[in-house]
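Title: Prediction job returns without error message
Component: structure pipeline
Severity: low
Priority: P3
Assignee: unassigned

Description:
Job completed but the reporter wants confirmation the result is attached to the right record. Sequence as submitted:
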Amino acid sequence: MGFRIFRRWSYWLMSLVMVVTIASCSLDNFKANDTQLSRLVYSILSDPKTFNYALSNERPNIFGLTYKGLISENYETGEITPELAESWEFSEDGLALTYTLRENLKWSDGEPLTADDVVFTYNDIYLNEAIPTQIRDILRVGEEGKLPKITKIGQRQVKFEVPEPYAPFLRNTGVNILPKHALAKTLTEKDSEGNPLFLSTWGTNTPPADIIGNGPFKLKAFTPGERVRFERNPYYWRVDEQGEAQPYIEEVIWQVVESQDSEFVQFRSGGLDLTGVKPDNFSLLKREEERGDFTVYNGGPSPGSLFISFNLNQGSRDGKPLVDPIKSKWFNTLEFRQAVAYAIDRPTMLNNIYQGLGVLQDSSIFPLSPYSASPEKDGIRAYNYNLETAKDLLLSSGFQYDANNQLLDGDGNHVRFTLITNAGNKVRESIGAQIKQDLSKIGITVDFTPVSWGSLVEKLGDSLDWECHLISFGGGLEPNGGSNVWNPDGGLHAFNQKPLPGQDPIEGRVVADWEAEIGQLYIKGAQELDEAKRREIYVEAQRIVQEELPFIYLINQYSMSAIRNKVQNVKYSPLGALWNIYELNLAQE
């Protein structure tokens, strides 16, 4: 997982729901006097929830366009590249990292961007315990979770120091930098309840002109429920080899739309510049490439994981168990989870639902990452479809069948649970329907219930009132980005979630030995600097995940998008279709 992927787990949910969710927008909505602008149009699923980067917990959000960090990532090569920093240097012992900023950096309002902004961003915001930001978790080092020390050593130089060797040191110091001149007072001044004003600063009702950034674009306008408009940031630092300012595109439009069908129709009619390609429309779009003057890009396996997961949390709130104790006993029985994995017909799922446009997934780490393990290469367990094995596992662990071949537990309770996912996603709805059918073959009744996105986020991130879910997490090349998922105290530890900041406490939460071991392996992986040994550590973590099955992995869909040929210099990557938006250009039509 890349260093950008560290927000509360609802962020992760959204990351694969979106992929490149692009949809409808009619240019007739805009004034005639700006129709000559170089404009890129695509869509988002819903309104942004905040314009405050540190408090953002989900997508869609504006920050990929409006903010940058000291470094960035080349999604073609996976290499770390300079961004706000022109260079960096490690100390001989690897415990200190000194960045040198570019000269004459500016914020979108023209104010200078200096080392003071970097130190402020980290010390006053990310490392400030009064600010409930998930960014702090990814900056923790070692078993004790110590935080780095950040000091200014010059107007353009900042030093980061860690207490022990830390392999993802460079990558994890690439989070976005925020403006001290615009936000400093909000951290010292309090509201009527004694909280920093920062917590209510830059909400979505803030005038766009007041949102100060440093990215290639700045916020121009926001119409709730309709669209978000961005305009080129004239103070963005990048210039091309000829000295021309980047980005070249003058305006980006996000249209708020929730219908995949509308997205598809609008793209085919020519109203959109790009769209996500799904298995059910791939063939049609491929046939229309030449006539429609667009290209379908296939980046191979996507940087994420699709899975079902049972709620393993054995705790209670206010004396009420989060999960029915009868069902909790099933879910926390390893043989039950393994039987479910064997009973899901993933090959049929890949062929029928995905039209072959993907691969079976047997690992928690992005397939293109050098740390990803496979059954063939590393011997980790794969759950190949086998109903007899599934039934044998259930019978061996005390389950039984009645006269109608319905599965009962040892106390005679009918095995039945509810599976939820987000409504409106056709692929997931088809997967849920197949899982319902597959598990009926081993006597399990599944109540498959697609719910609204808001309800899904509330259940999985706040109330924890769920039994089994079908969701996806985003990912990347660096496995340490997933430490927040695998650390039992991490904010993304979704299958056995602890209370997040501001939530009611949970009594009686139990962390299993294997669960703690995975968390320890992720700590060791971050401490190990030898790449071969690092990989061995992460392979062991993946081996335990596949044995214990907190997540039952399904299919890794290919990352595909259709992009108009007028969009020039596309360098398509499964990590991001528009990752190089600063150098994209639009041909004259």
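Comment from assignee: result matches the submitted record. Residues 531-548 form the longest helix (18 residues).
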